[in-house]
Every structure is written in structure tokens, then in C-alpha cells.
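[agent] plan:
  1. take the single chain provided in the ticket
  2. run structure prediction with default settings
  3. attach C-alpha cells to the ticket
  4. add a short note for the reviewer (M.T.)
[agent] executing step 1
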Amino acid sequence: MSDFLHGKSCEVFVAPFDVRLSADGDDGTVVQPDILVVCDQSKFDPDGRGVIGAPDFIIEILSPSTARHDLVTKFRLYQRAGVREYWTVDPVSKTVAAHVLHGDWYATRSYDEQDSSVPVNVLDGCTINLTEVFA
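[agent] step 2 finished; step 3 output follows
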């Protein structure tokens, strides 16, 4: 993905990287997604400590200890905050659930390791090959 973003205004980050989901920073909700993409440069914290407001794209990699939190709590937080696209990746079952925001709600589509070209809807022209991801 970083190759795709080269020369574009979007930037990719990996945890630990703080995201304060509320654009005004008032609600105190801070998350650290596994991978995130931010295209709006004005969302970067002037102190250099992270992002204020919803990233454009978030990926959470599920583990037994975090799966419920990622699938329920963070799903709701990201949907309410307006994260445009949120993927949950399950390395055990080799599946991806891609949640794309339509209005106030996520529409979800599932993919598995056989899908060789999964579109990242918020990054026009960007695809991820799950065969390579799960190799």
C-alpha cells in the first residue's frame, strides 16, 4: 500500500499511533489501529502525537485477545466517528471483512485468501492481493 500512496497526499501509519476520533478532541476517545491511512493533512496533531479526527482507512488484525473489542467496540466507534473504510483481518481463517461507510452505516463485504484483487474503496485504484497477504 505504501507504494500505491507514494507521491499522493495520503500517508500510511502502523501502531502505535494515536488516533483521537473526535475532531474536536473533546470526548477523549483514543485508539491505536494496527494500520491506518490519513489523506487529510489538517488532521495531524500539531504536537506530532497522532491524528485528530477519523482516518480515511483503518485495518485491525484480529487476535484472540482483541477480536471482540475490534469487531464490536471499535466497529461502533469507527462507524460513529465516520471512518470511511474499516477492515478486520482474521489471520487464522484467512478472511477479511471490509466495512465501507454509506451514510451513517457500514456495508460489509467478506473476502478470503482466494481473492487476488480486493479494492480499497476509499483509495481509488488501490487493490490488495489477499493471496499475498496470507501467504
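[agent] step 4 note for reviewer: Residues 2-133 form a domain with the tt1808, chain A fold (CATH 3.90.1570.10).
[agent] ticket updated
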